[in-house]
Amino acid sequence: MSHFLILKLQGPMQAWGTHTYEDFRPSNLFPTRSGLLGLLGACLGIDRSDHDGLDTLARSVEFTVKVVQGGVKLSDYHTIMEARRANRKPKEGETVQTRREYLFNASFLVAVGERPSAPICLDAIAQAVQKPVFTPSLGRRSCPLSVPLYVTSQEAETGKDILCAMKEKGVVYTEQKSPGCNQRLMLRDVPMYGKTRRFGTRMVYIHAENKEGHDVS
Fold first, then answer.
1. In terms of pLDDT, which residue wins out, 208 or 162?
2. CB atoms < 10 A from the CB of 216, how many?
């Protein structure tokens, strides 16, 4: 049995950005690994420029996400100075038109698991989630939480087992492969901390539940 921390991510808006440039900033349909690490990093008081601290956190945890309510995706218009663009470098003093996607009225459950020999233990993360150092947000600073993050701590074989046993039903995305799972998805959302913003890839495994809570993946 393993120990898991259960979080609830719910708010008017959420934005789980994928790898892109500033002229278009899409949102993934469920929380990304990079976004969840940023959320926990804020709770622990790890500064965004503290690459060693963020890397230590990344080596400590794994995630399983359940989509309780998918929400509606809409885009917002912004302008930004000297932004990175997909087709060329920014020009000095240039104002770039951008569109940013958000998820409205979405809700997720997240099981945070502790990796073997984790530098940061799950108990420390649980305390930080309940008394965060920096204000946590749902992907971007403009996306506040409407309910407390902390739900409970439980023991189970996998994060999937915990989330599938909860009354809220939905699709589960997990970093742990389990028997009977035939659906998988490759995501480029693993932050590679350094001077430039880069991301690696990971595989997530998809488990779909019906209304009775049975796995139909």
1. 162
2. 8
What H or E segment, with its residue span, contains residue 64? strand 61-69
Whole-angstrom Cα distance, residue 58 to residue 40? 10
Contact 215, 209 (CB under 8 A): yes
pTM of this prediction? 0.87
pLDDT digit string (tens) for 34-53? 999 999 999 999 998 999 99
Residue type, 6: I
Pairing mode of beta strands 72-81, 95-104: antiparallel
Joined tokens for residue 96: 């770039």
The CB-based long-range contact list for 193-197 (8 Å cut-off, 24+ gap) reads: 193/51, 193/52, 193/54, 193/55, 193/58, 194/51
Q: Which residue has the tokens 């409970």?
A: 152
CA distance 78 to 149: 29
Span between the terminal Cα atoms of the chain, in Å:
24
pLDDT tens profile 130-170: 999 999 999 999 999 999 999 999 999 999 999 999 988 89
CA angle at 190 for the pair 178 and 99, rounded to the nearest 5°: 115
pLDDT at residue 105 in the model? 94
Burial label, 214 (beta-carbon count in 10 A; 0-12, 13-18, 19+): exposed
Q: Rounded mean pLDDT of 112-117?
A: 94
Q: Are 103 and 16 in contact (CB under 8 A)?
A: yes
- What is residue 48's DSSP assignment? T
